[in-house]
Amino acid sequence: MEKLKIITMVLGIIETNTYLVFNPEDGSCAIIDPADRADDIEERIRRENLKPACILLTHGHGDHFKAADEVCRKFEIPVWGLDKEEQVLLDPDRNTSVAFFGKPLSIKLDRVLHDGEEIRLLGKTWRVIATPGHTGGSCCYYIAEDKILLSGDTLFFESYGRCDMPGGDEEAIVSSIREKLFLLPDDVDVYPGHMRVTTIGHEKTFNPLAVSER
What we know:
Metallo-beta-lactamase, Chain A; six-stranded mixed sheet; alpha/beta; 29% strand; 7 helices; 214 residues
């Protein structure tokens, strides 16, 4: 089976990466972190002849789900996310939507996922990896067959997620990256919530958390 393809859309005031992950054989698609501008997301999906199956959220901050409710309604698809982030998504104070956008946002998960759970999506097996630190319920999605990791705001190119917002924990994010993500193969492509694509191998060499271990 062909490797999944990924379209990156940089959206919103904080330049958040929204990913359209799709199976090139049938056009089935998962929308990762619909950050903003639902009309633009819809237009790109229709232009590429994709068939959305669900929205996957990496964590509950408003800059990652501002367009989720509208996209959900446009395509009549469910929203999935980690169990430990469910209450954050419902609470505008904890999900930073008021601070970022000046208005409260919230969204309810249609399917609650759990750490270590394997889901069958787009013809592939995706593993849910809980990576607390940026928020208490942050998670990554790992597609081992295709060597793809969608890392949200946990792991960035030569950086990692901030921990000074509600639910942030510096010790936890260090543990999540070193003890979970850095155990993945070096040639796994990492698609972060902000900035450019990287690899696990690159981050094990150049990320501050790797360098500081030496």
